């Protein structure tokens, strides 16, 4: 049993609450991820162990916007000592998605990565992970000039300000016309359309979300002429073994501060509705977390 300390607020919670995720059925407690303390543990996870987790919670069964959650052992992710519970609550979905999507796209040291939306959880995690794992360039973007400035101040030096420059123009400027080997796109809509011409020859675009819309226009020559590819990714389809292996890499990068989780704002559990509104309408740079 995990005594919850904090829960991550994600766009999926909003999608489900809005009735746009047909596999979820009401009544349902929301919350797909979170962090807390083990109670009633065993030798592998003794009482008091700090853990984070994700799983079917808040989608197919009651979720993490809750005081206690019963979590199968294989879903428990040990939290590095240097990471506090609030930051830990927002790690599993974004970081496991970003890491496994990068690997699915054939990421390796020296590749150029584009992960749009530096303020979004997946965009930020993919940008940080690619940088830490030795990308030649780890590029992101934002549709907000203020957020571009905020990102620069936080040390993200390759963020394209879409109020002043197109996505592909920015990638070409930063890479001297080479393009992006890997695109991790959680935004969809026009961002996906605009990212395709930024692909390098043989590049791969992973589509995994639709914050800006489920429909995109594809110029097929962006794929044909560059022998590039586009494919989907779903964290829910990844095995617990794959997620646990990914977590051990991520935990090492967290422990050595090569990646640094960003929390934009916390809300008490009773203000969950306002927290969700804040995430979707204000589009902060960093995570929104419920404290329990
Ligand atoms: N397939 C999977 O396994 C998987 C896993 C995790 C997440 N997801 C999905 O991936 C997507 C991104 O998740 P996230 O947590 O990174 O989202 P998020 O934290 O809410 O970030 C969304 C960002 O998208 C940017 N954006 C650009 N155009 C937008 C528009 N028209 N409306 C709203 N936002 C817009 C905004 O950045 P700027 O304001 O800076 O432009 C915003 O900060 C979601 O759809 C989520 O459900 C899928």
TrEMBL record:
Pfam families, per database record: ADH_N, ADH_zinc_N
This protein's record includes keyword NADP: yes
GO molecular function terms attached to this record: NADPH binding; oxidoreductase activity, acting on NAD(P)H
Keywords: NADP, Oxidoreductase
Positions of the Enoyl reductase (ER) domain: 1-290
Gene3D superfamilies cross-referenced by the UniProt entry: Medium-chain alcohol dehydrogenases, catalytic domain, NAD(P)-binding Rossmann-like Domain
Keyword NADP: yes
Domain of life: Bacteria
Name recorded for this polypeptide: Quinone oxidoreductase
Naturally occurring in which organism (per UniProt): Mesorhizobium kowhaii
